[in-house]
Design goal:
With 403 residues, this protein is α/β, with parallel strands linked by helices. Helices cover 37% and strands 17% of the residues. The strands form three sheets. Strands 4-10-9-8-7-5-6 form a seven-stranded mixed sheet, with helices on both faces. The longest helix is centred in the N-terminal third of the chain and has 20 residues, at 109-128.
Length: 403
């Protein structure tokens, strides 16, 4: 007999048996489709977060579900000990979509960033000629690239960083958006600059115009790799395939994840220059599930969706509408709105509520969103959302701020 679940019983079960490393809103989702989710008691909510951009194509997009179901009926896993009929075509078409030369498949976003760090260091020693164990990577204040030990070593967020040492050396932190600081930090041992084109966890922070052109020039002048972490900002979220595309800048390596798995399974990749990723030789790096047939199937279907340009157009047009509507709330409980495309950081007026309080009030209005830090809402609706649904959510936000 099926267990009867309520929101409270789900929360109690999670709290009793799951590690308390998250503080979710008290809602228990049981079903979802498109931009909408339904909880265990039948209440519907508009998803205004998209799994932190993992659900760019909405919940259970038919083309993605069909690709996974078809693959499950044929082949699930071979490991990379053998070839399979899905891996190479996925890599070829992902490289074609991103205008890159080689693909390194992994599973989670953090794994992709770790892989990019390893590749950059190996390239520095074997190609650039940096002294062994001396390579440095320049990163930005306010960054978020994942939660592995090496990655939190260069986080300046005490919640992510503190009490996980000893930390991995080899990282130099500069203020985000300060191109001169990047240039000043580059030295003979600099292997790479690793940054988010738009910082997500920090509150959807967009750097000043010209920042990326200046950083690209500094990297070129000093034989330094530019690594763009597009795990949240990429794959049409901002209106372009990559957020860097808005500046007309190309990176040497890109890290991809989240939406690459269609919100179905974890799929990540490092894509970029062949002469850089080519430093990896057999046995030097790998993952049992990296690029496995099911991952390749859903990733390939994601590539097919993005090749049409439809989602980039939706993000551009609906993003302009979203930012217009959010702008109307400035001075009415909102201090500032930032972002690009269907991605926004909304700073709550300190005189009003905390981000958690607004998230809870929004939930009561039938819209799901989540705070980052204390007073910022991170808004990232699925790219399948409609203008009317955006209006509904922003009106709900206005009501939540006044509740």
């Amino acid at each position: 007999m099926a267990e009867h679940l309520t929101t409270q019983s789900v929360i109690e079960l999670d709290d009793a048996w799951g590690a308390h490393n998250y503080h979710p809103l008290p809602v228990a989702i049981a079903e979802a489709e498109g931009a909408w989710v339904t909880d265990v008691e039948g209440r519907r909510y508009l998803d205004f977060l998209s799994g932190y951009s993992a659900l760019n194509f909405g919940h259970r997009h038919p083309a993605l579900i069909a690709a996974v179901r078809d693959q499950l009926d044929r082949l699930t896993l071979t490991s990379r000990a053998f070839h399979n009929d899905r891996f190479g075509a996925f890599c070829r078409d992902l490289a074609g979509l991103t205008d890159t030369e080689m693909v390194l498949t992994m599973n989670t976003g953090a794994e992709a960033v770790e892989s990019a760090i390893k590749v950059a260091r190996k390239w520095a020693y074997e190609v650039k000629g940096v002294a062994f164990d001396a390579a440095e990577i320049i990163v930005a204040s306010g960054n978020f690239h994942g939660r592995t030990t090496t990655i939190v070593s260069f986080s300046d967020d005490p919640v992510a960083h503190d009490n996980y040492g000893p930390f991995t050396p080899g990282f130099v932190t500069v203020p985000y958006g300060d191109a001169q600081a990047v240039r000043d930090a580059i030295g003979p041992n600099t292997a790479a600059v690793l940054m988010e084109p738009i910082q997500g966890e920090a509150g959807v922070v967009v750097p000043p115009d010209g920042f990326w052109s200046d950083v690209r020039a500094a990297c070129d002048e000093n034989d330094v790799l530019l690594i763009a972490d597009e795990i949240q900002s990429g794959l049409a979220r901002t209106g372009e395939l990559f957020a860097l595309d808005h500046e007309g800048v190309r990176a040497d390596l890109y890290t991809l994840g989240k939406a690459l798995g269609g919100g179905i399974i974890p799929v990540s990749a490092v894509v970029g220059r062949r002469d850089v990723l080519g430093v990896l030789k057999p046995g030097q790096h790998g993952s049992t599930f990296g690029g496995y047939p099911v991952a390749a199937a859903v990733g390939h279907a994601v590539v097919d969706l993005l090749r049409t340009g439809e989602f980039q157009e939706r993000s551009t047009e609906l993003g302009a509408h979203l930012h217009r509507r959010l702008g109307e709330l400035v001075g009415h409980g909102v201090a500032e709105v930032r972002g690009r495309g269907l991605w926004a950081g909304v700073d709550i007026d300190p005189a009003a509520k905390t981000g958690r309080e607004v998230s809870m009030a929004l939930r009561d209005q039938g819209v799901l969103c989540k705070e980052t830090h204390e007073r910022t809402l991170r808004i990232a609706p699925p790219l399948v959302i409609t203008a009317g649904e955006i209006d509904h959510a922003v009106d709900a936000l206005g009501a939540a701020l006044q509740a």
